[in-house]
Specification:
The protein is α/β, with parallel strands linked by helices and 392 residues long. The protein contains 14 helices and 12 strands. Its EC number is 4.4.1.13.
Amino acid sequence: MSDYSCYNFQTKLLHHKHKTDPVTGAVSVPMHLSSTFHQEDLDQFGKYDYSRSANPTREALEEQIAQLEGGCRGFAFSSGMAAISTAFLLLSQGDHVVISEDVYGGTYRMVTEVLTRLGITHTFVDMTDLKEVEQAVQPNTKAFYIETPSNPLLKVTDIQAVSELARQQGALTFVDNTFLTPALQQPLSLGADIVLHSATKFLAGHSDVVAGLAVVKDEELAERLYFLQNSFGAVLGVQDAWLLMRGLKTLYVRLRHSSEAAGKLAEYLNHHPLVKKVHYPGLKEHSGYPLQRRQAEGPGAVFSFELESEQLVRPFTSHLQIPVLAVSLGAVESILSYPAKMSHAAMPEQERKKRGITNTLFRFSAGLEDPEDLIADFEFALAQSTIQVLAK
């Protein structure tokens, strides 16, 4: 058996335990569509018995993401929220969670409307302020939930520092690594206990899969999470697992190009008179720039920006030609999202504004287009927006 661990990340995406099928030599993992498996004996079952509990195709994906994140075991779920929700089921009634304040809207909804009903309390904090994080800790704090860079304001949290604080408290550290993927950031190596992904995004990368992944670094924790995965049952289907593995093969080259494009467009918008602010940890003036360089391999392909006036919002989006105006991110096509009515619609307006998620804020995920075409498209849309607003 080859030691694939010695390869660099880019090579690991293609060369791993499941690079070829041991029976046929196929260079693509077979799709085992069977829901159930024949057992040779009544008293001794084989490794697979029912696909909710284990499936060879899903298992190949789970082993690959565990290797890429540097964990001991991976888990594939039917969506990113299924992965996050199942991880939260590690908590019990009476537990408390400290969580990033500008967290994804679906996570906010889960924490505020579901966990509270189960008797699990929470405190939202600015995770960039370690003193504020420390002050939020309670005797019953059992988990710290981090998004870094955060969604949608791209705030950068010190994973190592928060993970150390969690260890002192005897709590777990969850990190949503959707924006950067293990290609750019590996939270387990910085002390986190569980890494979570909406694999719908960069990992799959083609806007054709809805999936979630979790990776843990501790065997005991892995057994607990597997019990919940099997009990809750929100597992990823075989065909989606196969598509996700296909998407992973090009992750490195996709993310490299998209990050470069995001950087160029962010720089352009950062000096545009109609743009109030750009939130991107690849900009030197971003408060998290030094930390991002220390704990990650790059700033990623997502940024957000605020227009100078709410009057510009509709004209701007109506004149853009290249980006898809849609929920989601991390695809081959560039995606422009409006958090107030899309990713963070589940968050009450008062809570959004408190966090700086204004009605002039957009989130942009760079795709594989030529960055010069993107800049030209944005330049045209902003110019036309000005003309349209002045004409009123």
